[in-house]
UniProtKB/TrEMBL annotation:
DEAD/DEAH-box helicase domain ranges (all copies): 692-857
Pfam families the UniProt entry points to: DEAD
Taxonomic superkingdom: Eukaryota
InterPro entries linked: DEAD/DEAH_box_helicase_dom, P-loop_NTPase
Gene3D superfamilies: P-loop containing nucleotide triphosphate hydrolases
Listed name of the protein: DEAD/DEAH-box helicase domain-containing protein
Length: 1098
């Protein structure tokens, strides 16, 4: 509430306000706030000056723009400015100010002004900036605004006026929130240099003044520009739209004439370049200002002039990728083979054209412009919120039924919090989750928390029984988009009921809805008779326009047959990608959008080339079933009816499955494929003696396939418990039953695990394995690299996870539909990167996958959410993610190996303390890293002492024992190795697999060597410092010792750090965070160490 009030009131906050946000009533310690120096910079805010030294160079904005009234003297970003005092109220758009701004420049009627403002009013901040820039750049006489011609200077002034009245918006590229006034001043200044220069006296000073005002409004969020400043800026915008001049700053664009630049004007250009950098802008804008600033020092600037002027600019010309990123999805055939190409062509051939340096004769008749105009109009219609054509109903409706997943009730109820007696008048808070297959099979667990606590502690049977009894004694609210009319769940007569109806009966009956019929589009008349037309239909702009402009509350007759026909006839990649985008969406369908350069955006997964065909397919389906999904601003859709959308998803999958992977292959080929997989399975089962927990994990996955109809599985086993062979045996069994069209198994594994995985697959499990070569884009690939993707059928194809970004576009996506995927250490594929984007795309395209790890949680549960959702057939969100997690195949083992955690605190000496103070008082951005390095440097000797003592003690009991010594970096490892070698035989990471590995008492590895090897289990102690990293990595590296094959009943984990130092604080933080993964182990089935006997020797 406090944060909301700060935002709504646009309150100026200080560090005390931030600390107040971190306080939680009832928790004396509050929350921890860690500020990373790389993410912020301390700067001096605006300072109001009462007296100014005569020697000070003052940037006088009052003098630049004229006007009367009081002024402020400010020191801002190292310079002194004199600006008019701010207005007492924010600017409100009115016709009078626009009329005053364009007075004497152009004649515009009140009707035109009102019409222009009315039409531009719905535009976003970005669209208004684009409108201002495109109107000035295109230099047309008039702008066609919804059927009426408006003089271009009027539209430019109106766009500027609406910008001044805007509250502002967030720029993801700059990671900056910009006020409307700031955007107006800065954008207008950029336009003057980039698109249209006004050849008037003092225009260089005006440029400087605009940027100065932009900085003032940015740094002082309570400063409202005066009426005079706003009108002056709007007048500059109107004049720029009329100006035929342009500074020839572009390379290869030399001007036929030049203007003289006075020394004072050159200084204004130089100051403007500095001000823009203080304001922050795109790199290209800042480079342009630097270039003009440098050129102005010569005393002249070359100019270009328009030789002609277009008569009309359609308003849709304001649409391009800078503001409407989805325009790349709407552009039709011939617009480019990649998003990067589409964006470049749209800008170079349309929106970037300027008559001041280009000939625009016959512009609107050009084919590339006509293609662009279609996409621009489609986007603009949504931006202007134009009404759509309502489809008339032609019948009352037809019944549609959706089969419910048994887990819908558990997800709808979510975790139930209960408090049970724990003895000594204490209460224990537990969570009860209804069972996914049968709600009466409730799961009871401790509540996950981030505070340090013992989460390994077993619940007693009485505590579990009491928790279930408490959960059953109350009714619970049901919140599920698949049960919209349901209100509460209650346990009665031994069964869970929903609104008085037994859940088992609801599942058997399914959900039934009655959907009215609407008139069909003309393009689907003969589609069922001629399905080959579907591919051409995706390129039909008329069909797309009809879909985007229509809305309705029903579906057409035979919509199921037409949807199945479309997904059956299109390439599998397009159809499967469309289905994947619908899956688990209950409010909106947001297709990924590319960056301005056509690449990855930092906050979402990648948009892939060809996604425009997927968008068109979804748009056409929205025309067939408008009651399920409705187009919004491209490339997004609104979910109208979640139940009907799930039915549409089912139709689409049925269409895909009705078409074999290769229509030309006879049925006998599918049987032959299964036979080949059976041969592979027989070879594996001859050498794979599965233990009880592994057999149970495979049984759970098979059961989930039968009961829950899931697309994949999330397999959790701790390090060293046999995930590899479990996934391998399950994969081959599934392939023998369902793999008629699956030709290969693809195993994706992180860096550092490939070599050991391949060795295990070939030597231990005798499986034919192919290591997929890295795909290179270099002219001369290195040894072991190729230009193309090479996969081998009926083998395990191992791919380095970091190579996915290249392989996905080189044929791996196309081969995904005929491949079984295993995503090893899937927790490395959570963050929004190209690697994760590729992995998520593959799991959505393939017929079956297994995602496996020992550490499912990284920073928070939201990173796990997307992968969990792909393994469930019920709605998964942040409220019920634990319910989805209860469906993970989690086998937790009681190894009988105790883990003893020890902290060795080294006293801080005066030299270190004094040096840390000096570093802290410095202004360097990397001071925290420097401080951590200093502390670690003075802790290394203690680490060596502890490691040597522990190694000698361990080897006295175990001849081949010793210590695994963890270093922070390669240089740190070299130092520790040199120090330890002076006491005991020591080796590096490679020594673990050496023939004489047993002779090394201390093995030094870096902290990133946390996965993919078993050879450290001969060691009994791990000694480490406190290093930056994540909980998953720390858990994994501990698993190198505490794993199957470890002979000791107890292993030690010793952390050595300097007391009361920054690394000591880091270690405390790690101890608190690491417990989140442990809490998920409660959802797994536990097996005693007895069932593991025999496996330890393998």
């Amino acid at each position: 509430m406090l944060l909301r009030a700060m935002v709504e009131e646009r309150r100026v906050v200080c560090w005390r306000d931030v600390l107040q946000l971190m306080y939680t009533p009832g928790l004396p310690e509050g929350k921890k706030l860690i500020l990373r120096p790389r993410l912020f910079e301390l700067v001096a805010g605006p300072q109001i000056l009462s007296v100014v030294d005569e020697k000070e160079d003052v940037l006088d904005v009052v003098k630049i723009f004229g006007g009367e009234g009081p002024a402020l003297m400010l020191r801002l970003s190292g310079r002194v400015m004199r600006v008019p005092c701010g207005s007492s109220r924010a600017y409100q758009v009115d016709v009078e100010t626009i009329r005053e701004a364009v007075k004497g420049l152009v004649v515009g009627t009140d009707e035109q002004l009102h019409h222009c403002l009315t039409q531009l009013q719905p535009l976003s901040l970005g669209a208004l900036k684009s409108s201002l820039q495109k109107v000035i750049r295109f230099h047309a006489k008039d702008v066609l605004v919804e059927g009426k011609l408006i003089p271009a200077p009027v539209v430019a002034a109106a766009s500027a006026a609406l910008l001044f009245a805007s509250k502002g918006g967030f720029s993801p590229e700059l990671q900056l929130f910009t006020r409307g006034a700031t955007a107006a001043f800065k954008r207008l200044a950029v336009i003057l240099l980039e698109d249209a220069w006004i050849e008037e006296d003092n225009m260089a000073s005006s440029l400087e003044g605009l940027l100065a005002l932009g900085l003032v409004t940015q740094q002082m969020n309570d400063y409202e520009p005066s009426h005079h400043l706003i009108i002056s800026s709007m007048r500059i915008a109107a004049k720029a739209a009329m100006s035929c001049s342009l500074i020839a700053w572009r390379k290869g664009k030399q001007g036929p004439s030049s203007i003289k630049v006075l020394e004072c004007e050159a200084r204004s250009f130089q100051t403007s370049a500095q001000l823009l950098r203080d304001l922050r802008s795109f790199a290209g804008d800042m480079q342009m200002f630097d270039q003009v600033s440098e050129s102005s020092k010569s005393g002249k600037l070359e100019m270009l002039h328009a030789h002609g002027r277009p008569d009309i600019m359609p308003l849709c010309h304001i649409v391009d990728q800078h503001t409407f990123r989805g325009v790349g999805h709407v552009l039709g055939a011939g617009s480019g083979a990649t998003f990067a190409d589409r964006f470049h062509l749209l800008f170079d051939q349309c929106t970037g054209c300027n008559p001041r340096f280009s000939d625009l004769a016959g512009f609107e008749s050009r084919p590339e412009v006509q293609r662009a105009r279609f996409a621009q109009n489609c986007c603009l219609n949504f931006a202007l919120q134009k009404p759509r054509n309502a489809l008339p109903l032609i019948s009352d409706g037809t019944p549609v039924s959706l089969e419910l997943d048994t887990g819908v009730l558990a997800a709808g109820v979510g975790p139930i919090s209960v408090h049970v007696n724990a003895g000594s008048k204490r209460k224990k808070e537990l969570l009860v989750l209804l069972g996914l297959r049968c709600p009466e099979d409730e799961v009871v667990m401790l509540k996950p928390v981030r505070a340090t606590r013992d989460l390994f502690g077993e619940l007693t049977e009485k505590e579990r029984a009491d928790a279930v009894t408490l959960a059953r004694s109350h009714s619970h609210r049901v919140v599920s988009p698949l049960l919209p009319s349901s209100k509460e769940a209650q346990f009665r007569d031994g069964m869970w009921e929903v609104d008085g109806c037994k859940w088992a009966d609801l599942v058997s009956q399914g959900v039934k809805v009655k959907i009215p019929l609407v008139c069909p589009p003309r393009w689907c008349d003969d589609l069922l008779k001629n399905p080959s037309r579907v591919c051409d239909l995706l390129d039909d702009d008329g069909a797309l326009e009809d879909a985007l402009r229509s809305t309705g509350a029903g579906m057409i007759a035979d919509s199921d047959k037409i949807v199945m026909c479309m997904t059956c006839s299109l390439p599998h990649g397009i159809s499967l990608r469309a289905v994947a985008l619908l899956r688990q969406q209950y409010a909106c369908i947001s297709m990924p959008t590319p960056s301005l350069q056509g690449g990855l955006v930092s906050d979402q997964l990648a948009a892939y080339d060809g996604d425009w065909k997927v968008y068109r397919l979804l748009a056409l389906i929205s025309r067939l079933v408008p009651a399920a999904l409705r187009p919004t601003m491209p490339p997004n859709f609104q979910v109208v009816n979640s139940i009907l959308l799930r039915v549409v998803e089912k139709w689409m999958m049925e269409g895909i499955q009705s078409r074999p992977a290769d229509l030309h292959l006879p049925r006998s080929v599918g049987l032959e494929t299964v036979g080949r997989w059976e041969e592979v399975q027989k070879c594996l089962e001859q050498v794979a003696e599965l233990m009880e927990h592994q057999r149970e994990a495979i049984h759970c996955m098979v059961q989930r396939d039968e009961d829950l109809k899931c697309g994949g599985h999330f397999l959790i086993m701790d390090t060293g418990h046999g995930k590899t062979v479990t996934a391998l045996v399950y994969a081959f069994r599934w392939l023998c039953q369902h793999g008629q069209n699956v030709k290969r198994l693809v195993w994706i594994t992180p860096h550092g695990t490939v070599e050991n995985l391949v060795k295990q697959l070939r030597d231990t499990w005798r499986v034919k394995t192919h290591v997929v070569p890295r795909i290179s884009s270099a002219k001369k690939p290195k040894s072991g690299e190729r230009y193309d993707l090479v996969l081998k059928d009926f083998m395990v194809n191992v791919i380095h996870a970091d190579h996915l970004r290249a392989a996905i576009d080189k044929g791996l996506a196309a081969e995904a539909t005929s491949s079984f995927f295993v995503f090893d250490e899937v927790d490395e594929m959570y963050a929004p990167t190209l690697r994760t984007s590729a992995a998520r795309r593959l799991c959505q395209l393939c017929p079956k996958f297994v995602a496996q790890t020992a550490t499912p949680l990284r920073k928070n549960e939201s990173q796990l959410l997307a992968w969990l959702a792909d393994t469930c057939s019920f709605p998964v969100d942040k409220q019920n993610w634990l319910v989805a997690a209860s469906g993970m195949v989690s086998m937790q083992l009681e190894l009988g190996i105790a883990a003893r955690e020890e902290d060795v605190l080294v006293p801080m000496v005066d030299d270190v303390r004094d040096h840390c103070r000096r570093i802290f008082n410095s202004r360097g951005a990397a001071r925290w890293l420097e401080m951590a390095g200093l502390v670690q440097q003075h802790t290394d000797a203690a680490m060596i002492k502890v490691a040597v003592q522990a190694a000698e003690e361990d080897r006295s009991r175990h001849a081949d024992g010793g210590v695994l010594l963890i270093a922070d970096s390669r240089q740190h490892a070299e130092k520790l190795l040199k120090l330890s070698s002076a006491h005991l035989p020591s080796g590096d990471f490679a020594s673990l697999e050496a023939p004489d590995a047993h002779r090394f008492a201390i093995v030094v590895v870096t902290k990133d060597k946390d996965r993919g090897y078993n050879s450290a289990r001969r060691l009994g102690v791990m000694v480490t410092g406190a290093y930056a990293g994540n909980a998953a990595s720390r858990h994994q590296i501990r698993g190198r010792l505490r794993r199957l094959g470890q002979k000791r009943k107890e292993v030690r984990f010793v952390t050595v750090c300097m007391e009361n130092s920054i690394l000591h604080l880091l270690h405390k933080r790690h101890s608190a965070v690491d417990t989140m993964n442990i809490s998920l182990e409660q959802l797994g089935q536990r097996f005693s160490a007895d069932v593991l006997k025999g496996l330890a020797g393998k």
